Amino acid sequence: MIELENLNNQGFEEIVEAAKKQISQLSDDEWTNTQESDPGITLIELFAWLKVLQHNYMNKVSNVSQYKLLEMLDIHLAQNKGAKTLIQVSKLKDNVNVPKGTKWLAGDMEFENEKVQSLVYSDIVSAEFIAEEKIKKVKYESFSGSRTFYAFGKNLEKRKKEDERIFKLNFSAPISKGLDFNLYFDVFIEDGYNRNPILENEQFLEMANISWQFYGEKNGTLGWHELKVINDQTHNFLFSGIITFSMQGNMKKIDNGFSIRAVLKDEEYDFPPRITSVKSNVFEVTQKTTLCDSSIITKNDISNDGSFELCNYLAIYGKSLIYFKGKNGWVQSTDYKCIKQESKNKAIFYLEDSLLQQIKDFTNIEDALLVISYDESIEHNMILGGGTGISFQNIKIKYENILYDSFDIMIGNKIDNIEYFNKWNKVYDLFSSDKNSKDYILNIRKGLLLFGNNEMSLIPPKGEDNIRIMNMALTLGRRSNIKDGVINKVISKNEFLSGAKIEQITPATGGVDSEIFDDVKAKASKVLTTGKRAVTLEDYENIVKSTPGLIINSVRILPYYINDIGNKTSNSITVIIRGGDKNSMRDLSRYKCNVKNHLDKYRLINTKIYVENPVYIPLSINGQIVVNSYYNKGNNDIENEIKSFIEKLNEVCGQPLYYGELFGAIDKLDCVSYVDKFSITPEGENINITLSDDIIIPPNGIYRLDKLDLNFIQSSNI
Known about the structure:
Layout: H1 12-21, H2 23-26, H3 39-58, H4 63-72, E1 84-90, E2 96-98, E3 103-106, E4 109-112, E5 117-119, E6 124-131, E7 134-139, E8 149-150, E9 166-171, E10 180-187, E11 208-218, E12 221-226, E13 228-232, E14 241-246, E15 250-251, E16 253-254, E17 257-267, E18 274-280, E19 282-287, E20 289-298, E21 307-310, H5 313-317, E22 319-325, E23 330-333, E24 336-341, E25 346-351, H6 353-358, E26 367-374, E27 383-385, E28 394-396, E29 408-415, E30 418-423, E31 425-427, E32 439-443, E33 448-450, E34 467-474, E35 489-490, H7 495-498, E36 501-504, H8 517-530, H9 537-545, E37 552-559, E38 572-579, H10 589-600, E39 608-612, E40 615-627, H11 637-649, H12 659-667, E41 672-682, E42 688-689, E43 695-696, E44 701-714
Parallel strand pairs: 31-32, 38-39, 40-44
Antiparallel strand pairs: 1-19, 1-36, 2-5, 3-4, 3-35, 4-19, 6-7, 6-9, 8-18, 9-17, 10-14, 10-18, 11-12, 11-15, 11-17, 13-14, 16-17, 20-26, 20-34, 21-25, 22-23, 22-26, 24-25, 27-34, 28-33, 29-30, 29-34, 32-33, 37-38, 40-41, 42-43
């Protein structure tokens, strides 16, 4: 570590005494009084005091400087977030569009859906599993979570191309054409296994190809047609999650029901997918209370009669302002009227001719209008103040628990007597802002907005009431993490939605408070110790085990080793992976591809990566064992001990099998009198057997117990 000079190594008295000693060298003989009463000594003490202060500051790294150093490591203060959870709405009597921002209640705590959500009244009545020429039909009540069902059968390894595997769901009524709808699948994961999550925008090669279809009419043809998948959180049944579909045809009856199905085209599953439950009308809600929300309306959103609709909770139950797009920003207009249809979950805005004239030359895809909807309780607080024209202006906000990511402001500037409003950018600091930037800092802990000085970001234009809230929500942060089953009410005047059954099916998690500086420094310490590059063997192993979407049972990193060539080569790493299912010996190319793609982000540039499956070494074990008279062959204690021994060896590839250790493990069992004969015979290439019958296998080898032939003799018969 670099040793830093201590710049603050002199105290006040030392500096004053050193300065007094220099008086005789630097001044004439007239300055002989060095008492504190002398004006010259007073000046020396003043400058000594300033020097002490200067050295004190120079000897410290300020918080501002530390923030910048942390940014270089791509580390920022984590801001507050509300918890997220899934809710299900059932017992609907008709289809419903749930407005964005609808309030779902857990006592007094509010959760909101962050987008318009379509709900269908059609219920799932049964499911069918078609695999290996067998059809298994189960009623929907069986999907209670207590049983598991193989979506495409159990023996996928034996599946042939002509072997059709289908998972089918039957509904009580057709799902209307043009509707987007959700299905939630609860996917079973074996105890002791953990599948790595796939974060948003992470690269992942899907392990199966599934075609979703609906039965009905499309383009004049009756039959099975493609059912469009908008989003699949399950990644083809690897995870529990929501699949969002878009119905692009008219469903028709088949076998006394309305059906969709998943047809397995090809797969490389590590585990055959198993499903414990399926639920319709499930969607995500987030804990927050939105008080102000903005919506952009394009020219294409406006109908021929000069109206447009918003399915937004605040637009329906609150108040709204409209701005049109001018040449220098948004200009407020009052030339409209709003008709609220609360029972139909929509607000209709009718534009007057004068406002339509302002946007008549816009293209269909251009942003034409800005609608700001707000809760009436904040009507008198939406205007934060006016620009003073003074550097580093700050404004106090009257609200606590502001959700950082939700907050936006716009600032007006008068040009030719027209006030144009523009959205300003929220930043963590102003060091990267130039004189043309429209940036500001939001400090939610202190409830302050801080602006620049025309060098680091612009100063807000001077004006009256020209700084306004554009978006704002409040959140309880960490306190919003609650157990499942608490959310059970909704605020709505729609009869179908207010009369429905509401159930929170997962715990609300992910709610956090804003970090303080000490939290960030702790994160920096972790980043510096773990690193983001694959250098050591431990680095490689940890990175492989974190590959998104996979269950990794064991990993072995082999430097300077390439399996298919057999020669040691410099600048190369061979990764031997064993998938989650210990019993599977399939060569999963997509599995290996995902590992390689993940490693490529961390490897050194000149390092070549090879990913291979283990080479399986078949074993034949024969023996004659004398057992105690009371031993019951049906207990399988001896066979289980051998299998457990082999399984433990296989936790790491390439482990030698020491004959004496396995012999001793059997011999020490209480049921064994003594081992009379015992032999282990391996098969395969590059295997060495020592004089003591120990088996040495290649570093990528895994044992497979193919034959276990034991002859038991009762000791009483000898």
